[in-house]
Design a protein that fits this description.
Oligomer: homodimer
Strand order of the largest sheet of chain A: 2-1-3-4
Helix content of chain A: 40-55%
Number of strands of chain A: 8
Number of domains of chain A: 2
Structural class of chain A: alpha/beta
Chain lengths: ~280, ~280
Amino acid sequence: MQAEIRRVYFLSNGTAITAETLGHSLLAQFPKLHFKTKTIPFIDTLEKANAVSAEINQGVDEAGELPIVISTMADPELKKVINRSKALILDPFGDFLPRLEKILNTVSSNLGGQSHRIASPSLYESRIDAIDFSLIHDDGCKTRNYNETDIILIGVSRTGKTPSCLFLALQFGLKAANYPITEEDMESEQLPVPIRSFTNRLYGLTTDPNRLVHIRQERRPNSPYASLDQCRYELRVAEEMYYRHKIPFLNTTTMSVEEIAARIVEDTGLHRVETASLSQTDQAI
Amino acid sequence: MQAEIRRVYFLSNGTAITAETLGHSLLAQFPKLHFKTKTIPFIDTLEKANAVSAEINQGVDEAGELPIVISTMADPELKKVINRSKALILDPFGDFLPRLEKILNTVSSNLGGQSHRIASPSLYESRIDAIDFSLIHDDGCKTRNYNETDIILIGVSRTGKTPSCLFLALQFGLKAANYPITEEDMESEQLPVPIRSFTNRLYGLTTDPNRLVHIRQERRPNSPYASLDQCRYELRVAEEMYYRHKIPFLNTTTMSVEEIAARIVEDTGLHRVETASLSQTDQAI
């Protein structure tokens, strides 16, 4: 028999990214169950809130089981409408804001969608700069400005360098370059010239050979490039290179882009730049 | 007098991205206060948990004010250590998991760092494919495969097309291309040839002229490109183009990359692909 599939809503009067992120973390604690999720952002009028609530209630009638709602509605009136729905309502704002108000001895603004607005134009710009930098310095394309990088990821083709760099830039505001280790580099005991004088900024990626075969097969099916022998050889030589030059490295086989980026930041002691808003006081634009 | 700066910790035995995201949302509700935040991910041993707890307590002694802790620790033993710290502990797992267990009639796995692991290799690959696609189709570089795109962002230089596309790919798994509107295009009443037959996938970005001046000045100070007249002209013509061809568009002046991306998905009815893990049952690698 098909497992019961529980309906889950992520609701917000902002982007719903917070509700989604928290919701995924909670649901991941029930690995054997299946969930059918729906994200509804920007619920910012009474009309929209009523429509969403009606949709949630409709689900109860059909399935006979209560849906789950993870809601970060901040507006008190709209929140009231959502929280009256026939569902298990998990409302972190409702639970945590009163406790924060008490310890901070002030009231909260009850404004939705604050966390993903621009707190500070200069912070926004440094984040965009990091993204620009990481794009320009993708895949060893440009190597002249490595003295400006926060980190240079190295590894053989398709070990996750590019998405990891983009995530480091987007989420953590870091200038992350990446440089591919190619066949020629493997025959030398020395590091490739462009990265040789930046050993303290290098960070290696590696993965399981079978996983690499699978990923490369998607790109160039049945090519020597995607063969198990070739993948094994390249990964072995790259790992020897990391050991020889004392370059920290990570096996990314089962890791998501988020986890790779967070591990790199942790391992290297880099500073996670606050790309999300904390204070609106310097919101000048 | 300098405003009191409250210390805030985001703690997790995983990436801490969930704790950080929720924490930023909560703190953003107190726009007049200042916070000093510290993220500590991968607290996965008793030793680390004790060290973090000691650090939190140390802060109390010095400042005389309770720090705030937003913690998504899942391991019960480690959580216990953290929750004994002298701080206001906000623990969404502790509050919400028992309620979820009750309605789902099962126990949670108490495993940390599940939400940012790979749930499904195929999902991981489709996300990486989206990133690859968006990189290749940045800035009108390659236009042949527009029939595969989920969306094509258009706009004049420096309106946020590139970071928005990358975020759409990373966060929502969407294949997002972008095409710049250049001076030549502005003199024509028609859409540029490469995008002309894809009007139903086009989405325009615009911004405030003064904001655009500021951003362009950073890149090419005192150039005609960064002048107020030029910025005003380009934005006006671009907006006329959006109206003429019935292209939906967004003014991104005060928006973060997250908000731009979430608004675009909402406006266009695109499906947010679940890039984060929901079920570990198909975790095969």
